[in-house]
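User: Here's a structure from my thesis project, written as structure tokens. My advisor, Dr. K., wants to see whether a designed sequence matches the one we expressed. Can you design one independently, without my sequence as a hint?
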């Protein structure tokens, strides 16, 4: 039995998330359907992250076991010919039998894009959160620094999260202003804020809740001096809203 690993890029707009759901289009279900065409048998993909509906990926890592003799390169080329254009296999390789894309992950990096200007974007509406009120970037950066480290992130955990505990470690959290979301036309000043967070693991909706809470800081709805208390309280009700999914990208998984 061989073990094959893929790195996948996808736009999540048209899907109900990664994980298979009955009667709904999902990333996992779509890829497994095409793999069945190629191999003639049922394939079950294991993913590093179960992204939600509308969330995108630049580097989702998955693996599956198969008795097929199809080479990794042929899997990549064949699937890219069969898959819809919003799902792409970026890389394929054979890995050791005990490799598990979820359990072996050492760190994950997510990016979140906020469009901070008075009017939205007709072109990039599926790739950013439009916030029209000017945000205090310095206050958001200072608050983000307080999230770095090993902490109990109950305040940033979705109610339906099924994790056994809320202890997680954030390795880095940066917030930068960028002139555009690539590949925007030069000269179109978008006023984009890019958040990038790297951690060993994340709770359900954790990145989106942290983002929503940092935006509340940027708006002045949560004072910077009160942000540590939000963390320490371990109470979801004290944190900000869950940021919408379309601004979130799974950038990379490290092994």
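Assistant: Designed independently from the structure alone:
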């Amino acid at each position: 039995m061989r073990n094959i690993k893929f790195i996948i890029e996808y736009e999540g707009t048209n899907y109900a998330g990664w994980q298979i759901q009955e009667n709904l289009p999902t990333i996992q279900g779509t890829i497994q359907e095409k793999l069945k065409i190629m191999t003639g048998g049922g394939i079950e993909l294991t993913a590093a992250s179960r992204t939600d509906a509308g969330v995108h990926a630049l580097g989702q890592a998955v693996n599956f076991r198969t008795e097929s003799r199809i080479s990794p390169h042929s899997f990549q080329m064949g699937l890219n010919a069969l898959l819809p254009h919003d799902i792409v296999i970026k890389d394929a390789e054979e890995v050791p039998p005990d490799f598990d894309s979820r359990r072996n992950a050492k760190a994950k990096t997510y990016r979140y894009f906020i469009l901070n200007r008075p009017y939205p974007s007709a072109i990039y509406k599926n790739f950013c959160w439009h916030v029209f009120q000017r945000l205090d970037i310095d206050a958001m950066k200072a608050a983000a620094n307080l999230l770095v480290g090993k902490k109990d992130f109950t305040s940033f955990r979705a109610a339906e999260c099924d994790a056994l505990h809320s202890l997680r470690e954030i390795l880095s959290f940066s917030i930068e202003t960028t002139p555009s979301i690539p590949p925007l036309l030069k000269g179109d000043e978008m006023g984009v804020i890019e958040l990038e967070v790297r951690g060993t693991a994340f709770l359900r909706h954790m990145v989106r809740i942290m983002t929503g809470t940092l935006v509340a800081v940027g708006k002045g709805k949560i004072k910077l001096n009160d942000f540590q208390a939000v963390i320490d309280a371990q109470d979801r009700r004290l944190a900000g809203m869950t940021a919408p999914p379309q601004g979130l990208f799974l950038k990379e998984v490290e092994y």
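When you compare it with your expressed construct, this may help: The mean pLDDT is 94.
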